[in-house]
Amino acid sequence: MKAAIFDGIVLGLQYGLLGVGLTLVFGLAGVLNLAHGQLAVLAAIIAALTIDAGSSAGVAALVGILCAAVIGLLLDRTLMQPVYRLRGESRVLLGLLLMLGVAFVIDGFLEWRYPIEALSLRIGGDPVPILGVNMRVGSLWASGIALAAGAALLFFFRGTTTGRAVRSVIQNEEGAQLCGINPAFVRGLIFALSGALAGLVAITRSMTSPVTVTEGITLTTLALIVAVVGGLGSVSGAFLAGILLGIVDRVSSFYIGTYITTIFLLAAAAITIVVRPAGLLAPRR
Amino acid sequence: MTATTARRAPGRLSLFRAYLPIAVTAAVLALPPLRYHESRTLMGVLVTGLVFACYAIAFNIIFGSTGQLFLCIGALAGVGGFASVILSDEVGIPMLVSMVLATALAALVGGLLSWIAVSRSLDVIFTGIVTLAFSLAFSSLLLGRRDLTGGESGLRVQAGADTFLGDRVPPYYAFLAVVVAYLVIYRVLQRSHIGWAFRALRDDEMAAELSGVDVRWYRVEAGVIGSAMLGFAGALYAHSEGFIGPSTYAFGRVDIRVIVMLAFGGIGSLLGPVVGAAVFTWLDEWLVSFIELRVLLYGAIIVVLFLGFRRGVVPTVHAAFRRLGSRRGGAGTSGSTTQARAP
Amino acid sequence: MARSSVSPSRTWPTDGWTVADEILALDGICAGYLGEDVVHDVSVTIAEGEAVAVIGSNGAGKTSLFRAVCGLLATSSGRVRFGGADITGSKVHRIARAGLAYVPAERQLFPEMSVRDNLFLGSYPQRPDPERLELVFGLFPRLAERKRQHAGTMSGGEQQMLAVGRSLMTNPRLLMLDEPTTGLAPKLAAEAYAALAELRSHGLTVLVAEQNVPLALGLAERGYVLENGRIQLAGTSAELVGNPDVRRAYLGVS
């Protein structure tokens, strides 16, 4: 049981990062990025190709993450512009559908061109015992990176001028404009950050198990569930929800079964929406 | 010089003009088997096209008419399909009864989803997420309950195999009848209180609410009817195909196609679903050798469609005809009314 | 208050025919929503250091006019000149950075950020100037008491003060306020206008839209009367207060 919980925390930290990327874009731009998981997979495949070409793992990881960030920025500057011109329900709908299209474009492209590529970053070393449970080195690295990323995000949003500016645009775009903040710049920044986070999740995931081209939909679904349970738009909520759902995922998979676990997680999202749409774990507003 | 024409409510067509397009469509669609009846595969493709037209008409009612983003079209059809097959093959209930029961079940599930969305005032995104969650959960359920559903390998359907549904050509006409019936249902709904309610809701939500009628509940009606249509089509498809599996009603196979078909054909138009289904069934066949490219292409088409061609084929054609008509000096009104909203 | 170090002429070219001391000029402004104008052919000139009131009842177009000036609403025709430079059609944030501060009626604060953070964001992208912060806290002592309180939990009057304070942090040359006394008790409203008067002594130009005519004309030297989107009257405060139509419509005198 303890092993399952520890595994769950490792998984949960990555789920958290995954959810944060999705929730950031939604909170800021009102766009539900259904291509988030696909961006992650794209980063993984680019990293894998870079390794195939002879680079070290570290460089390849950076390249992958950077590419995902750039593509995120590109999406904001191109496809999302018509979306931003709309308001309310039309904006949400168009954003959702366009991102769905992008998801299929990326998925289709990868399955067509690189159907058997996968990213796997093996980190050597014997398992390290933590509180009586043997943890693989890869898991520890992945968790460490996720935690560091979380801390960096926290510092960024709470402690830097730009981070505060981002939060201000999320809370009141017009007010932010009146303070001289350019919402278009902030949107581009967040889309790039979201892409980078997706890439980062792919990299850390590959430290525990291979990331293949078929995982895009799974990752998007997980990101969606985590973001919803944590409250769409809440970064801290997404992180907490991720950890919680990661634990639920591992424990349930271990004791009950994988298909039921999937249904549990999906139900968690649905129940959150029906019972407390602001998010089960979002700070009370 | 305009003769005095009978004043009708704006947009209200005469009975004849309302149903004429359906009759014409039925006549046109009755033709293909005359040419392709030899090939079983081709007939199968045509039948699939009709099935997707049914799905698209149902989605048109649920989303096009009442704005509910149901991302579980395939799942609702799957509820109908699997329920009917399980009831008729495992439990032994006669096929027709199974189909009715399965349809009712789909209607119940869809109605429940609508009811949740309306009573909790869920907006588009949340309705979409909840229905997507249902769709994915349903897929998991199909894979998990291997004993009932055959899991990954699916089920061979016995009921119906020995009826006319197992032949080459008759299923086509059966589905054509269903398509026509669905088109009629759509038209009837449009001209009924549901159609009025949604137009009122879309034009001015506050005025609609103030008029004393809670128009949102018509969404549940539309949800139930649309889901019943999906369930029935799914069930009929199962019995005519002879085989159903986890991919038959999957999101990636059904929902994406239906969204593209409807968007291309024209959301909210009568014949949009049929036009869309026709075009994309043909496109699918044309691309059958490029199977990996299909996903990529569908994605690209969605992006292009929603960026540039949001109205769809049928409304665009309509508008073109109207412009032609007014240019010839007809008495029709041109242009759209702009609504100035108070700041 | 220190003069703004960002001169608009660095960002936009001046067109050379500006009135001396003119800080804001509206020339034939038409603006509206969904193709229908609610502001028709409004022309206004404001000199640096002045206080000017725009008076009108609900729906007269005051808010739409102000939003058109600061870039939140697109103009269908007409030009806006600020500090000698044509800012028509410019983006909202660039106009704000050039020294034109707008305090909307809805205030548009950041509800989940503290008073301190709200004020800090006013000086974006620079770090907040401690002198200016002192000035703001001096004008609104109640804000100093609630530095860490979330803006969303404050009362209407406090939010109004915070909104004005935040706009002051942007180091404006011109401050536009849209109905600053809405929902405020008379005492608070008077306090707000006293603060504005003090700001004027620091050299700030003030343009205020108001339904509360006595307060507005008490602060301002000049005024425009806006009705149905058009300027019906213009004159000094004394002239407007004495005008029988104004007295009947806005001062409740029969």
Q: What this model shows, in words?
A:
- The complex is a heterotrimer of chains A (285), B (343) and C (254).
- Chain A contains twelve helices and four strands, in the order H-H-H-H-H-E-E-E-H-H-H-H-E-H-H-H.
- Chain A is mainly alpha-helical.
- Chain A has one domain: ABC transporter involved in vitamin B12 uptake, BtuC (Orthogonal Bundle), CATH 1.10.3470.
- Chain A has a two-stranded antiparallel ribbon with strand order 1-4. In chain A, strands 2-3 form a two-stranded antiparallel ribbon.
- In chain A, strand 2 and strand 3 form a beta hairpin.
- Chain B has a two-stranded antiparallel sheet with strand order 1-2.
- The N terminus and C terminus of chain B are likely disordered.
- The radius of gyration of chain B is 21 Å and the shape is globular.
- Chain B is an all-alpha fold and 343 residues long.
- Chain C has two domains: 164 residues, 3-Layer(aba) Sandwich (Rossmann fold); 63 residues, no CATH class.
- The N terminus of chain C is likely disordered.
- The interface between A and C is medium-sized, with 18 and 30 residues.
Q: How would the blueprint of this fold be written?
A:
The complex is a heterotrimer of chains A (285), B (343) and C (254).
Chain A: H1 2-29, H2 36-52, H3 57-77, H4 80-84, H5 88-113, E1 118-119, E2 128-130, E3 133-135, H6 137-159, H7 161-171, H8 173-178, H9 183-206, E4 211-212, H10 216-230, H11 235-255, H12 258-275
Antiparallel strand pairs in A: 1-4, 2-3
Helix pairs in contact in A: 1-6, 1-9, 1-10, 1-11, 2-3, 2-5, 2-9, 2-10, 3-9, 6-7, 6-9, 7-9, 10-11, 10-12, 11-12
Chain B: H1 15-29, H2 32-36, H3 40-65, H4 73-91, H5 95-119, H6 124-144, H7 146-149, E1 155-156, H8 170-190, H9 193-203, H10 205-210, H11 218-241, E2 243-244, H12 251-265, H13 272-286, H14 291-308, H15 313-327
Antiparallel strand pairs in B: 1-2
Chain C: E1 22-33, E2 36-47, E3 51-55, H1 62-70, E4 75-82, E5 85-86, H2 92-97, E6 100-103, H3 115-122, H4 130-139, H5 141-145, H6 156-169, E7 174-178, H7 186-201, E8 205-210, H8 213-219, E9 222-227, E10 230-236, H9 237-242, H10 244-250
Parallel strand pairs in C: 3-8, 3-9, 6-7, 7-8
Antiparallel strand pairs in C: 1-2, 1-4, 4-5, 9-10
Helix pairs in contact in C: 3-6, 4-6
